[in-house]
């Protein structure tokens, strides 16, 4: 149903006994054998036409507004240049017209989609666990409007949403009015998502609970009247940046995949890479040299949030 099977790092276990705690702490500081997962962690892959059935749309119609939002499955088109992958089309029309019978509604003009609740098992509610990953990646083709990527976690305040602008370089009109736009992959650092509530940045900020993600989705809240369309082929978590390299957190120097791309990362190549590393002479470095990002929590610049 989704992208190729992946190897995930098992979550660590912290014992309450001091002896085991000291052993675990020593291991964490030594950072020996600690690696980030390199295989992608699939969230949505719309090459599977059934994936769209797990999504739902939302708009201001729920409060009497007039905006529309739909999701349509689109098959792959190899005849186009370049070829178009199978994807879902998020489309509709934004209206800022206010309902006449709801004086309490003073703002409309939004549309969005997200996955439906994933359900429960005997062990509890189902979540995505993206704590081992640096980036959220999306394969999209945009019309250039101001979309936001939304993540909801199992937080104390259920209405809290972590948001980040979906910045695109090759959207429709990027290189002139006749530019139809093209497919591109967008990488967003997970630690740069901003906690909001009803579209307003919430203070104080708190780190996103990445171990328990309830939903992923995309919304349009620019309140610009008119049609919109955003095509989405896939969404996944990854530790490979746009250069195909691992960077950022603990183990970053051990995970460098050079110019490897997501689809080129195979078990055989990973084993070959590990064998090459094994033959490299070990050079002892200080903790700060080995983990330059330790203790840093990311940017506090929320100017991109509207």
Automatic annotation (TrEMBL):
One GO location term (cellular component): mitochondrion
Compartments it resides in: Mitochondrion
GO biological process: mitochondrial electron transport, NADH to ubiquinone; NADH dehydrogenase complex assembly
Domain NADH:ubiquinone oxidoreductase intermediate-associated protein: from-to ranges: 44-232
Molecular function GO labels: unfolded protein binding
Keyword list, A-Z: Chaperone, Mitochondrion
Similarity field: Belongs to the CIA30 family.
Protein name, UniProt field: NADH:ubiquinone oxidoreductase intermediate-associated protein 30 domain-containing protein
Species classification: Eukaryota, Fungi, Dikarya, Ascomycota, Pezizomycotina
């Amino acid at each position: 149903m989704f992208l190729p099977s992946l190897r995930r790092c098992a979550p660590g276990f912290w014992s309450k006994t001091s002896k085991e705690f000291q052993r675990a702490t020593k291991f964490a500081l030594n950072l020996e054998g600690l690696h980030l997962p390199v295989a992608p962690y699939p969230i949505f892959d719309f090459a599977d036409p059934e994936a769209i059935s797990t999504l739902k749309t939302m708009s201001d119609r729920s409060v009497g507004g007039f905006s529309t939002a739909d999701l349509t499955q689109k098959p792959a088109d190899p005849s186009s240049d370049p070829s178009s992958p199978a994807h879902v089309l998020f489309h509709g029309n934004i209206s800022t017209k206010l309902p006449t019978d709801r004086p309490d509604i003073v703002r409309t003009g939004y549309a969005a989609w997200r996955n439906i609740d994933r359900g429960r098992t005997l062990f509890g509610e189902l979540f995505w666990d993206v704590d081992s990953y640096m980036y959220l990646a999306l394969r999209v083709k945009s019309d250039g409007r101001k979309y936001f990527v939304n993540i909801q976690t199992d937080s104390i305040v259920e209405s809290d949403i972590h948001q980040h602008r979906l910045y695109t370089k090759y959207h429709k009109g990027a290189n002139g009015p006749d530019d139809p736009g093209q497919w591109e992959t967008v990488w967003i650092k997970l630690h740069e998502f901003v906690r909001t509530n009803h579209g307003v940045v919430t203070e104080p900020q708190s780190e996103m609970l990445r171990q328990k993600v309830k939903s992923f989705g995309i919304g349009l809240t620019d309140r610009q009247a008119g049609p919109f369309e955003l095509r989405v082929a896939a969404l996944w978590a990854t530790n490979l940046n746009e250069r195909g390299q691992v960077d950022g957190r603990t183990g970053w120097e051990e995970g460098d995949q050079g110019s490897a791309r997501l689809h080129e990362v195979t078990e055989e190549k990973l084993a070959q890479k590990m064998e090459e590393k094994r033959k490299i002479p070990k050079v002892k470095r200080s903790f700060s040299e080995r983990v330059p990002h330790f203790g840093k929590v990311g940017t506090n610049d929320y100017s991109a949030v509207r």
